[in-house]
Automatic annotation (TrEMBL):
Taxonomic source organism: Weissella coleopterorum
Protein name, UniProt field: DUF998 domain-containing protein
Keywords: Membrane, Transmembrane, Transmembrane helix
Membrane-traversing stretches: 48-69, 89-105, 117-141, 153-172, 184-204, 224-246, 258-280, 292-311, 318-336, 342-363
Pfam family name, one: DUF998
Length: 385
C-alpha cells in the first residue's frame, strides 16, 4: 500500500470536523476522489431510523388494538370506517410527518440541510402530504388485491403496526438525508402529481376543450386539488428560493444582481400560488386569473432575458438553453394567437412546461454556484517512497 501525505485547507478540515488521526474512507467515482467521513454516522443513522420505526410501529399497533376493543370490533375489513386502510393512513400520515419534523430539526445544522425553522416546517409539510398520498395509493392496491377480506383485530393491529413502522423508517431516513435535490424532487412530484390527479378526478371528460386552468374551477368535481397543488407548490418554491439565495448571500447590500433575481423569482413563485388562489371562474375572478397568468409569463421572460447579467459567470450552455426556451414560449404564443394551430389548452400546457422547466434549470444552476463557492478545495498530495 502506497503512503502519502495530504495537506488539506483549514476550511476543509473545519467543515468536515476532522481531528487528529482521523480515519476517513475514499473512493474514486468518474475519476473524482469522493471522501466519505460519515460511514459510521450513516450506520448510526440507520440504527436511529430502525429504532424510531420500531417504537412508532408498536405504538400504532397498540392504538389500533385499543381502538378495536373499545369499538367492540371482532373482525376488521380492508376498507371503510375503522378499517385497515383508514387507520393505517391516519396513523401513518400523522406519525410519519411527526417523525420527519423531529429528525429534520435534529439534523438541521448538517451541511446541505435546509436550516431555517420555517423552511423545515414547509418541507416537512410537503413530505408529509406526499408520504400520506403514497401510503394511500399503497393501501388502495392492498385493499383491491384482498377485496372483501376480514381478519381478527390482533392480526390487523400487527399489520397496521408493520405498515406504519415501515413508513416512519422511510420518513426518518429521508429527513436525515435531506438535501437540495430532494427538495426539488418533492416540488416536481407535488406539482405534476397534483396536476395529473386533477386531470384524472375532475369529473369532466371534456375539460381540455376549455383551458388548462379549467381544472381548478368550480365547474369540475375536484377543482380544489388543482388549486391546492399550485398554492402548495408555490410555497415549496419560495422555500427553495429562500434557502438558495440566503446561502449565496443575495442581499440588497451584498450582491444586488442576485438580490434582483431573488426578487423576480419570488414574485414568480407568488404568481404561481395566486393562480390557485383565484381560479378561472366566470366573472371578476376570470380577469384576475388571466392577469396573474400573464404576469407570471412576463416574469419568466424578464428573468430569461436578463439572466446573463443577474448571475455570476453563466455558462454558455445555460444561456443557449434559456434563449431556446424563450424562443419556444414566443413561438407557442404565435402559433396560438396568429395561426390558431394551438388550442388554448395546448398553449397553456406548452407555456407552463417551458416556464417550469426553465425555473428548475435555474435552481440547479444556482445550486451549482453554492457548490463551486463552498465545496471545492485544493489539496497537496505528496507520495512517500
Amino acid at each position: 500500500m502506497a503512503k502519502a501525505t495530504i495537506e488539506l485547507p483549514d476550511e476543509f478540515v473545519r467543515k468536515l470536523n476532522l481531528d487528529q488521526k482521523q480515519l476517513i474512507e475514499m473512493q474514486i467515482v468518474d475519476d473524482q476522489i469522493i471522501i466519505d467521513k460519515n460511514s459510521e454516522g450513516i450506520r448510526q443513522a440507520n440504527k436511529i431510523a430502525f429504532r424510531w420505526a420500531m417504537v412508532t410501529g408498536i405504538v400504532s399497533m397498540l392504538i389500533a388494538l385499543i381502538n378495536f376493543i373499545m369499538q367492540r370490533t371482532t373482525t376488521v375489513g380492508m376498507t371503510g370506517a375503522n378499517s385497515l386502510t383508514q387507520i393505517t393512513i391516519y396513523l401513518g400520515g400523522s406519525f410519519g410527518t411527526l417523525s420527519f419534523l423531529v429528525m429534520a430539526f435534529k439534523t438541521r445544522h448538517q451541511a446541505g440541510h435546509i436550516i431555517r425553522w420555517y423552511n423545515i416546517l414547509m418541507i416537512t409539510l410537503a413530505y408529509g402530504i406526499l408520504g400520506t398520498a403514497v401510503l394511500a395509493l399503497i393501501m388502495w392496491v392492498i385493499s383491491s388485491a384482498f377485496a372483501g377480506a376480514r381478519l381478527d383485530i390482533y392480526t390487523m393491529s400487527l399489520i397496521i403496526g408493520a405498515l406504519v413502522g415501515t413508513m416512519n423508517y422511510i420518513m426518518v431516513i429521508s429527513a436525515q438525508g435531506l438535501r437540495f435535490q430532494q427538495a426539488v424532487s418533492v416540488l416536481i412530484a407535488t406539482l405534476f402529481g397534483g396536476i395529473i390527479m386533477s386531470m384524472a378526478t375532475n369529473g369532466s371528460v371534456g375539460w381540455w376543450q376549455y383551458n388548462f386552468s379549467y381544472l381548478g374551477t368550480d365547474r369540475v368535481g375536484n377543482g380544489w386539488i388543482f388549486n391546492f397543488t399550485l398554492i402548495f407548490s408555490a410555497l415549496i418554491l419560495l422555500t427553495i428560493v429562500d434557502y438558495l439565495f440566503s446561502a449565496l448571500g443575495a442581499g440588497i447590500h451584498k450582491n444586488r444582481r442576485l438580490f434582483i433575481l431573488r426578487l423576480l423569482f419570488s414574485i414568480t413563485a407568488i404568481a404561481v400560488g395566486l393562480i390557485g388562489v383565484f381560479p378561472n371562474n366566470p366573472g371578476w375572478m376570470h380577469h384576475v386569473h388571466d392577469g396573474i397568468a400573464q404576469w407570471l409569463v412576463m416574469m419568466v421572460l424578464v428573468m430569461i432575458v436578463a439572466i446573463r447579467w443577474l448571475i455570476p459567470k453563466p455558462s454558455w450552455e445555460f444561456l443557449v438553453i434559456s434563449y431556446v426556451m424563450a424562443g419556444g414560449l414566443a413561438i407557442s404564443d404565435i402559433l396560438f394567437k396568429k395561426s390558431g394551430y394551438l388550442s388554448l389548452t395546448a398553449f397553456e400546457m406548452v407555456a407552463f412546461g417551458f416556464a417550469f422547466a426553465w425555473l428548475i434549470l435555474l435552481l440547479q444552476n444556482l445550486r451549482n454556484l453554492i457548490y463551486d463557492d463552498d465545496q471545492k478545495y485544493v489539496a497537496k498530495i505528496e507520495l512517500i517512497k
